[in-house]
Design brief:
7-stranded mixed beta sheet; alpha/beta; binds 5'-O-[(S)-ethoxy(hydroxy)phosphoryl]adenosine; about 675 residues; 22 helices
């Protein structure tokens, strides 16, 4: 494009904005190269995608490899259990690896990995794995899984640190049709146990341990504790974090536990990819809901693949020469879609870093970007707020000029953090894509398209192609300030909740007569049609971008003999976005007779054991009573008001209005 044409596109994007909000227009660089031209280009393709869902998604799917083509792009006959690319046969691992090698990318780096530990004065371990090497490793791994008797349709849990072997394990499962259920490495033994049992996983893949903030975490020990109560789990496949030097604390149970390196020696590095029907299950990923029991969110082979591929391509403008770094752990959906599958489906190079952003110092992420010349950096608002707190000096010490695009995910980003990110990390040059989506959606749903969509700090902007988003009130009428809703199905939509189809319907499809998907988030649509996600409207709290159900914590507390009842609410938190505040009533036999500090410690230890340390509340406040309506419903809104120091809203519906004052007094005295 000529300079004038580029300027025209940029100008056109600037026109027509009604509000006076701060607007950032697509940079010249992006406009020049963009796949879609300007806001008008976005709108044209968006219109087409909505008018002709089948055509849009069919074209995207055609860019991937299918052993057999589909007979229908979308089958809505079993709504809300949609089927995409019906009868199509494919394999996502084949598309990530074999198909890229066939395109000539065999010697290209697929994964750049950096370990956490840094020896004083020397660099940490770095590995670069080409597409060809990755294919061999994945095939070998798949053959080891077969050797353990695992076959298509079986489920396997994976509990590993952020090392390349985690991606390899995931891809190996996908290659042979074994369903992977990755459990984030921060979860406790009991949480693993529940997930393994819910899915009847036949094996657990783990590593002796991994590093986090300089500490070696012995993961295998946690798995041992978990699988002691998992009758379905016949094998634990154990990898070594340091080849030839297993962690001495790692005990192997004969008959059950298998060292990966032993099982893999002499095993072939060739393994055909299973041709799977598009609607077979690719993976299960557990996420918190508004009841105590986590939901096993199911994703399909074909639809999920197309969604991951398409969003990674457009939202991140992914190119062959990019080094893409998504800082999420593969234990969460972001790591599934934008560490493992999306980048590899696009033939890009992806960076994996094992550890924490502050190990050994606050400059670690910037050093990684500088050393490896990362071009796209995708992280969470919580991390950005931590970087702000640690100070700009850490950034100034490093050369971040390789960066061309930034992304944010997991929670609403406050404009202040957005602007800091833009100025200090992006040098006012890199567009920011604030991507809204969730475990259930498989991939991006609302996001700017870089080079097209002018951005406003704090807004996820406009829906992705093919995503028909609305803001509704309780009755299903369109409004400017209400609840986010999605009208039409999209390829990455979950296949439902494992073992509980009714819960899927009840949770996501019952709110507006089955006409819309209900994601559980509030939203505002501004004068320009831009969407601003306001946070969860259900009893799920986003702590540092990790979803935690308040009911899950309440279920933990009630197990303690002294606890009569509790209510957990989400409250504003400067760094984490939201934190958890727990209000606990003691049984009368215990009230006033226990040491509250001591009991709070015990309750926290129970949270560590039953969920994981990351789910600990900010505070546990012991209160005489909870604010309830006459029908016995806890008014959580009042607990949030008290926690955030606000004037109390209407209390006239309370059975006993004096309760809130008692709670407030206790809240403040406990704080002092
Ligand atoms: C929140 C993570 C605002 C939201 C991908 C959603 C966001 C939940 C954004 C899903 C964003 C995610 N802006 N809120 N850009 N991205 N969320 O399943 O509340 O771990 O429902 O998926 O995170 O969390 P999940």
């Amino acid at each position: 494009m000529s300079t004038e044409e580029i300027d025209d596109v940029r100008k056109a994007s600037a026109e027509g904005f009604a509000s006076a909000d701060q607007i950032f227009h697509p940079s010249t660089d992006f406009v020049q190269k963009a796949r879609v031209q300007g806001l008008d280009g976005y709108r044209a393709l968006y219109e087409r995608s909505i008018q002709d869902l089948d055509g849009f998604w069919g074209d995207e799917a055609s860019q991937l490899h299918w052993f057999e083509r589909w007979s229908a792009v979308l089958d809505e006959s079993r709504k809300p259990f949609f089927r995409w690319f019906v009868d199509g046969k494919t394999n996502i691992a084949y598309n990530c690896l074999d198909a890229q090698i066939a395109k000539g990318l065999g010697d290209k780096t697929a994964i750049v990995y950096e370990a956490e530990p840094t020896e004083a004065g020397s660099a940490s371990e770095i590995r670069k794995i080409t597409y060809r090497e990755l294919l061999s490793e994945v095939c070998r791994f798949a053959n080891v899984l077969k050797g353990l008797g695992l076959k298509k349709g079986d489920t396997v849990a994976i509990y590993m640190p952020m090392v390349p072997e985690l991606a390899i394990a995931v891809l190996a499962c996908a290659r042979i049709g074994v369903i992977h259920s990755v459990v984030f490495g921060g979860f406790s033994a009991e949480a693993i146990r529940d997930r393994v049992n819910d899915a009847s996983s036949k094996a657990v893949i783990t590593m002796d341990g991994g590093y986090r903030r300089g500490k070696f975490l012995a993961l295998k020990q946690t798995v041992d504790e978990a699988v002691a109560e998992c009758p379905s789990c016949a094998h634990v496949l154990v990898l070594e974090r340091h080849s030839g030097k297993p962690d001495p604390s790692c005990q192997m149970k004969p008959g059950r536990d298998v060292w990966y390196h032993e099982a893999a020696s002499g095993v072939s590095s060739e393994c055909p990819a299973e041709a799977l029907e598009s609607n077979e299950m690719l993976f299960l990923l557990y996420t918190s809901g508004s009841t105590g029991k986590p939901k096993g969110i199911m994703h399909s082979v074909g639809g999920y693949m197309v969604h991951a591929y398409t969003t990674n391509k457009y939202s991140f403008d992914l190119r062959g020469d990019d080094l893409f770094w998504c800082t999420a752990d593969v234990g969460w959906v972001t790591g599934h879609t934008y560490v493992v599958y999306g980048p590899l489906l696009n033939g890009a190079s992806v960076l994996m870093y094992e550890g924490a952003p502050d190990a050994p110092d606050f400059g670690r992420f910037w050093k990684i970007i500088q050393d490896h010349k990362v071009t796209i950096f995708y992280t969470a608002p919580t991390a950005i707020r931590a970087f702000m707190k640690w100070g700009d000096d850490w950034l100034k010490k490093h050369d971040l000029s390789s960066l061309r695009l930034l992304g944010s995910v997991g929670e609403p980003i406050n404009p202040e953090a957005w602007l800091w990110f833009h100025k200090n990390v992006g040098a006012e040059r890199c567009p920011i894509v604030d991507t809204w989506w969730q475990t259930e959606t498989g991939g991006h749903m609302i996001t700017p398209i870089p080079g097209c969509t002018p951005t406003k700090p704090g807004s996820a902007t406009l829906p992705f192609f093919g995503i028909d988003a609305a803001v509704l009130d309780e009755h299903g009428n369109e409004t400017d300030h209400g609840i986010l809703a999605i009208r039409k199905p999209w390829p990455g939509i979950t296949q439902g909740i494992f073992g509980d189809p009714q819960r899927y319907i009840d949770t996501y499809w019952n709110r507006w007569g089955g006409q819309y998907y209900f994601p559980g988030d509030g939203a505002i649509r501004d004068k320009d049609g831009y969407l601003w996600i306001t946070g969860r409207v259900d009893d799920v709290v986003n702590v540092s971008g990790h979803r935690i159900g308040t009911a899950e914590l309440e279920a933990v507390f009630i197990e303690h003999e002294a606890v009569a009842e509790s209510a957990v609410v989400g409250v504003k938190h400067e760094l984490k976005g939201q934190g958890l505040m727990a209000f606990v009533i003691l049984k009368s036999a215990f009230a006033g007779k226990v040491d509250e500090t001591d009991l709070a410690k015990k309750l926290n230890a129970m949270v560590d054991a039953k969920i994981g340390k990351f789910a600990r509340p900010e505070r546990i406040v012991f209160v005489p009573d909870l604010p309830k309506t006459r029908s016995g419903k806890i008014m959580r809104r009042l607990l949030r008001d008290i926690s955030e120091g606000r004037e109390l809203g209407n209390v006239t519906t309370l059975a006993d209005p004096s309760v809130v004052e008692a709670i407030r007094t206790k809240f403040q005295s406990a704080k002092a």
